[in-house]
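Narrative progress, year one. The postdoctoral researcher (J.K.) led the effort to move from monomer predictions toward full complexes, under supervision of the PI. The following entry was the first complex the group processed end to end, covering 490 residues in total.
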Amino acid sequence: MPKRIKTPISEADARALKAGETIYMDGIVFTGRDEVHIHALEYLEKGKKIPVDFKGAALFHCGPIMKKVEEKWVAVAAGPTTSSRMNSLEPGFIEKFRPGAIIGKGGMSQPTVDAMKEFGCVYLAFTGGAAVLAAKGIKSVEGVEWFELGMPEAIWILNCDNFGPLTVAIDAHGNSLFADVNVKVKENEKKARAKLGLS
Amino acid sequence: MVTEQEDVSNAVVELLRKTVVRLPQDVEDAIRNAYASETDEVPKMQLKAIVDNIDMAIKGNTPMCQDTGVAIFYVDLPKGCKVDVGEGIVEGVRRATKEVPLRPNAVHPITRKNPGDNVGERMPYISRRIHDQDYIEITVMTKGAGSENMSQLAMLTPSQGLKGIKEFVLNGVLRAGSNPCPPTILGVGIGGSSDIAMKLAKEALLRPINVRHKDPEMAKLETELLEAINMLGIGPMGLGGKTTCLGLNIEYAYCHTASLPVGLNVQCWAGRRGTVRIYPDGKATYPTHER
Ligand code: SF4
């Protein structure tokens, strides 16, 4: 049975996860991408109130399609977005807000891997584009904050049940599956170049 | 009866719905084959999630991916067509955004203001041609930003030649890495001019990936590049594995003797394209989605 983990995620929970594991998630998950990172850091600096508590939270790099059905929001499609766009913002975000997990696709760069190691946070890869599968793990939409940022950029508060599969791609000990793959790709590149007659 | 603007907008709503819900057969087949051939656990699970997602999208009639792109249309019009196809498409996009629904993605490039209906200055973007048929043919690609952001142009020198082209494509794939939701589909545009090379790269993605270029030299290059790219081991979602790329199509044009432009358009696994034909009596058929 794959592991199930409930939010909020304590530092100990986060540190118990190992790169390569598959897990499923229960509890509240917040969406947040480019604008949420920028806004949250700006609000913190200015001492303005942030509408949700990111401590121990699972932050999902996702700009969903939501639909209002009888006054209630429903997640139609909610797959991950490319996490590397948040590369420059994430280390600061992790340091200041201490989330327990970042969910996204494509992985993140070394400064984020380092911040995750220092503060006890993991990166969970959700299959890019698998938005219907993701929506299936969302039991209900509890609310939305910063809606004025637009549907993709707002903070959607998702109540999840068996959300996944999620691959622990960066753990809180400095291991990154993406970095491992990169080492192999560097090796394979030589063979590919030879096949194409490139030196 | 004659085709009305409303026939066009109705057909466009239906076209967008079909396109974002279901992949064309060639792409779906390629993904299922990749799933069958992958042996390692992590990439196999990534492909399983994609296959499950494809099935669930069809079953629930919902968009397979939340990024339903921006609306870029290719239109072939009969000679002397009197219908305002442009207005019909704009209306169709507006309605589809609400009815399908599509994600409101189109924003002002600088203020980033989002009108919420995927319609704005020059968007939907429409390329028009005239053809010899009596029907209106409209093709749309709903392409997400994750992969589009990895596209690029190189203005090579003629002396860099074929090697330069191969180098550029290989480096483009390496640079894109895990970002464009691999396994990807690549469109390569060779020649023309800077704008034409990029246009050809995108138009290359309109051809089914199991159909090789009619010019045998280009067909050979397509296969060779695809095989080399799949030696890289980037794999599904960049987590390693056999399938980095599902297909690679090239289109080319003659170019200036002093230049060699090459465009690379990166498409994610969700290679959504759809075509509708609207006949003079207003009836519509969907050749990419007749299954
Ligand atoms: S790159 Fe494609 S599959 Fe991935 S999130 Fe974007 S549109 Fe969806």
